[in-house]
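re: ur question from earlier - yeah i can do the single chain one, its not a big deal. heres the input i used so u can compare w yours
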Amino acid sequence: MTEHPSKILIQGGRIIDPASGRDDIGDLFIEDGIIREIGPRLSVKGHFQKIGAAGKWVVPGLIDLHSHVREPGFEYKETVATATAAAAAGGFTTICAMPNTDPINDNQSVTEFILEKAKSEGKVHVLPVGAITKGSKGEELAEIGELVAAGCVAISDDGRPVMNSKLMRRAMEYAKIFDVPVIDHCEDLNLSEGGVMFEGEVSTALGLKGIPAASETVMVARDIALAELTGARVHLAHISCGGSVHLIREAKRRGIAVTAETCPHYFTLTDDRVRGFDANAKMKPPLATRRDLEEIRAGLADGTIDAIATDHAPHAVQEKECEIDRAPFGIIGLETAFSLSLLLVEEGLLTLPELIRKMTETPARIIGKKIGRIGIGDAADVTLIDPAAEWTVDAGHFKSKSKNSPFIGWKMKGRIAGVVVAGAWLPAPGVEESR
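and the output i got, formated as tokens:
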């Protein structure tokens, strides 16, 4: 990562820090990668980099709990370098890298490779997520203690859910010992087998094999039961349907240690988007109905859904330019997530601090890291946002190596002006280095 200058002064921005409740206009002084002072009209001596933030929001660096960096093994889709460049462009200063690489991140050497790549080529912090089972085959537990010792912040077989409930129980018990969450991709593979999109009226009309909502809800219920049995911290990834929201809400009411995330596509798009047979609308879990979308939004509003993640899943152009039933599942999301999520504020579903919390402090708490906040003595990971900026999603401007987004052509409001990562200012394209 880039070496940081010794001093940076961010001037006149609206500083929003949900962790402390701060929401006021002021300056932020950074020295040697640490936040040193916060207040109105700070006076700084000596040489320093000045960043004008009048009219902008100054928030903790966004944290993505769910990214696929594809390296090692699938560098034609994405690399640590391109994924972190996309993250910085989208306002993220930390991303959690899922383990479905090649080889799978199920051992110390792969974890260390990812961390070394992030250190030498990354624009933002990369926190590896280790596999639950060896090779993510769902047959034998990986060495969870070794993975945590090497730097993994959670365990998951994302994309290849652990179908064996006894094995999942053991994984939760080990995760509890090593104090890391289990992140589960909730999908019953027997129910979803061969499916292309959500099972319902649209799939029937299009003649495409559907994936029932029960494929997700069955596993959500299973994981909640195992979380209650083991006392482990369980985090449910990319929740997409209303039935899951109801189960999670009830589990929280009962005091079970379960958290959940959703992604912007699940509160902005429905299965109607698949009517054009566009493979960029093919993802797993699949886009569901309008009713499910409204349930997801309600779950965000009442706190049932704790965090917003991207499930950034890059694929090469040629992989998506084929018949929809042959194309891989997944879309990219790092560069559009914040602007799409800001729609929740514009529509009055969340306050701005509530949205920022779901993308900073709460993800940090879920993975047990003391990041995602702006306070004196905290690491200088900060995001600057221009709320008035309007822009159109253009595939030609993506920093990601891949272009598989269903939002191309969408007009957005609210744009990332730049990020400070470990004290280094990375301006967005077209933004001045300093003033």
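The mean pLDDT is 96. not sure if urs matches, ping me
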